[in-house]
Specification:
- The structure is a single chain.
- With about 450 residues, the protein is α+β, with helices and mostly antiparallel strands.
- The protein is about 40% helix and about 10% strand.
- It is built from 18 helices and nine strands.
- It has a six-stranded mixed beta sheet with strand order 2-1-3-8-4-9. Strands 6-5-7 form a three-stranded antiparallel beta sheet.
- Helix 10 packs across helix 18.
- It holds the Pfam family SBP_bac_1.
């Protein structure tokens, strides 16, 4: 792979006045003498307006400002890893790939160093959140440019929880309280809706904080010593078995990140860990989504953090970042595009279109006027500040990235609720982790 440095990217006829920092400051760059095409692979956004904005307005502005034709391809997020692997093996594919979680660490040897872009962004926009840095920096360089973080909270039906005693917007504070509330709601045909399937967002964003809240963890701080098989982990699995049966829609074992949206919007579940996409959809179509009494569903939705456990209260919010692939024949153009799309004036349009579903990867976006529009969305404003990075508990970053990929923690709980003895489920998961960390 040809080494790409700041120096050779910016030299010659493609040099930009002021370098990458100049692009970030003014949000534009001189057009190429001859148009280039940059292929950007992304997930199909849960906020459709954002994909429309990128394909239409942003793509046109890109060609006008940079002379770059932008080819945006969107696919199901669960299919991205297969596409990246195939592209690396064949040596051809999208120039830029927007990946989730810590997936970028799996491909660190197959991507271009984008430290110049990332460092300039961090300096100009208040600094990156810890999660963004963990997924996109390998400790020596930036292997990706952080794009956003999707905050996750429990969306729940305010009126239904009020019926079982949680009035005035209150919500269960501990897992035991949540289980008891869920039992009452399930008895009314209103179970908790949660996925324990192989899906990119809601499953690991539930399973990891749940494990941590009981005092469990995958590995010690050295990134090598497996620490999963502990009394705390076993207790978390035992509780989950009863919690799942008593309070959940048990079909959640086969759900992806869209099933819970559909269940909540159709009134078949009472609460679900999710991004803000459910609430945003009810705002977008107030006449479509109604409560059983005929009122707007949007007025019966509140959000809450995951409950506390014996080991504390945790959360995990899904980070996105852009990889510039080493096989790309358009690395100069792709770098210029990345600097431009992340600049404040351009990124602001995408950020506004998200309606709070995503927060920026840097702290400046907490100050945006968007957050003043709807108090129900305020829990998402600082979501990126909280939590602990899933699978990133030591220096073995690239190996740790494989844990989310393999869904080991999710599967540990799924196997137990399907009948595997809790102790055996933990031993199985520990053996799987040894294949990753050792």
């Amino acid at each position: 792979m040809t080494t790409v440095t700041r120096r050779n990217v910016l030299k010659g006829g493609t040099a930009l006045a002021g370098g990458m920092a100049g692009i970030l400051a003014v949000g534009r760059a001189p057009a190429y003498a001859q148009a280039a095409t940059v292929h950007w692979l992304r997930w199909t956004d849960f906020v459709p307006a954002s994909d429309q904005l990128l394909r239409n307005e942003i793509a046109k502005e890109c060609e006008k400002a940079l002379g770059i034709k932008l080819n945006i391809e969107t696919i199901n997020a669960n299919d991205i890893q297969a596409r990246v692997t195939s592209a690396i093996q064949s040596g051809s594919g999208p120039d830029i790939v927007c990946v989730l979680n810590n997936w970028g660490q799996l491909y660190g040897e197959s991507v271009v160093d984008v430290s110049d872009i990332a460092e300039a962004l961090g300096k100009s926009q208040g600094g990156f959140y810890e999660t963004s840095r963990a997924v996109a920096n390998d400790g020596k360089k930036w292997i990706a440019v952080p794009w956003s973080i999707v905050g996750l909270q429990i969306a729940y039906r305010k009126s239904w929880f009020a019926e079982i005693g949680y009035t005035d917007g209150k919500f269960p504070q501990t897992w035991e309280e949540y289980r008891e509330a869920g039992k009452k709601l399930k008895a009314k045909g209103r179970p908790i809706g949660q996925t324990l399937g192989h899906t990119f967002g809601d499953a690991p964003a539930f399973a990891y904080p749940y494990l941590w809240s009981w005092g469990g963890k995958e590995v010690e701080a050295d990134g090598k010593t497996i620490a999963l098989n502990s009394p705390a982990t076993v207790e978390s699995v035992k509780f989950m078995v009863a919690f799942w049966k008593d309070a959940h829609d048990e079909g959640g074992l086969a759900w992806d990140d869209s099933n819970n949206n559909r269940a909540f919007l159709s009134g078949t579940c009472s609460a679900t860990l999710n991004g803000a996409s459910i609430y945003i959809e009810t705002l977008r179509k107030p006449d479509t989504y109604k409560t059983e009494t005929g009122g707007p569903l949007k007025d019966d939705i509140l959000h809450a953090a995951l409950p506390k456990g014996p080991g504390g209260q945790f959360s995990y919010h899904v980070p996105f970042s852009n990889l510039l692939m080493g096989y790309s024949k358009n690395q100069d153009a792709a770098k210029k595009f990345l600097g431009w799309i992340h600049s404040k004036d351009v990124y602001d349009k995408w950020f506004v279109s998200q309606k709070g579903f995503s927060v920026g990867p840097t702290t400046d976006w907490e100050k945006h006027k968007l957050w003043g529009d709807d108090p129900i969305m305020l829990p998402y404003k600082q979501a990126a500040r909280t939590g602990r990075f899933a699978g990133y508990e030591g220096p073995s970053t690239r190996r740790a990235a494989e844990v989310v990929t393999k869904y080991v923690i999710v599967d540990m709980y799924a196997k137990a609720v399907q009948g595997m003895p809790p102790e055996d489920a933990v031993k199985w998961a520990e053996a799987e982790l040894r294949k990753v960390y050792v």
